[in-house]
Structure prediction request, 326 residues.
Amino acid sequence: MSWLVTGGAGYIGAHIVRALSAAGLSPVVLDDLSSGHEGFVPDGVPFVRGSILDRDLVEQTLRENGVTGVIHVAGYKYAGVSVKRPLHTYAQNVEGTRVVLEAMAAAGVANIVFSSSAAVYGTPDVALVTEDLPKRPASPYGESKLIGEWLIRDQAVATAESDAPLRHTSLRYFNVVGSGDPTVYDTSPHNLFPLVFEALIDGRTPKIFGDDYDTPDGTNVRDYVHVADIAAAHVVAAQRLEGGEPIEPAYNLGSQNGLSVKQIMDAMARVTAVDFTPEVSARRPGDPDRIVATGDLAARDLDWANRFTVDEMVRTGWEARRRAAE
Prediction:
């Protein structure tokens, strides 16, 4: 069994590649390196540099590597920036997903795990988000992920009576942090953990983007989930699809216990032993007040669990980033 990981040279994708290899599922990586790093791809894993928008390349990669399923991680993942770059976001995330599905159909590949996002829910008005909650994305990024889910759903309907009906699931996850491999770390210029780490390494004061949210301490509240747990859930989803086992169309990979940005900052100071008081800046557009989700369905079907404390999330991420700086 061979699985193509689009975006497999990125932070999350590279962890999924390692988890696939550990499970005996042969990964293949397709990545244009716009935000990924070739050095994150393990030795011996086939790597194709190119864009998911290149239909011929995607189909060729599927055929030449005997791919039986796709884990579609590639995409433009910055909710705040997507407000300023909606057309780019839709091109990468909507058209990119359409092209991947088209290439899969041409190559006879009928399994896909889609990396979706909690951003499809927008700002929920419930304490805990469940999969059937109405979808009200608050940014072009969230909208593009929801459209991606629709594309996959519609293609499954269209192929239901064919020789290769599309089997699929979408994993909606939240703030992915930490590191499961000391050689791989989050290099995003927009995510909270790397922003704090870079500031501490440079001797700058970390920033909090907004302290006037409708939350107990004024900073927004999120699920924070460890990247190794995220990768493991993708592998189990791939195995269920490959084995023809029942699977839901979507799962929340949530912690059920939200943490505020201030609580994260406190853990950062505690674990890194760098004493600091964060600087407060203006809110970023597209950031909701609170999103916390259950992971009950994923726990039932995908062996989903939160196996790391907040201090372990910080510690593993900090150690990987410091190693890269050495």
About this structure: The CA atoms of residues 223 and 257 lie 7 Å apart. The chain has ten helices and 14 strands. The domain at 2-176+225-253 is CATH 3.40.50.720 (Rossmann fold). The first strand starts at residue 2 and ends at 6.
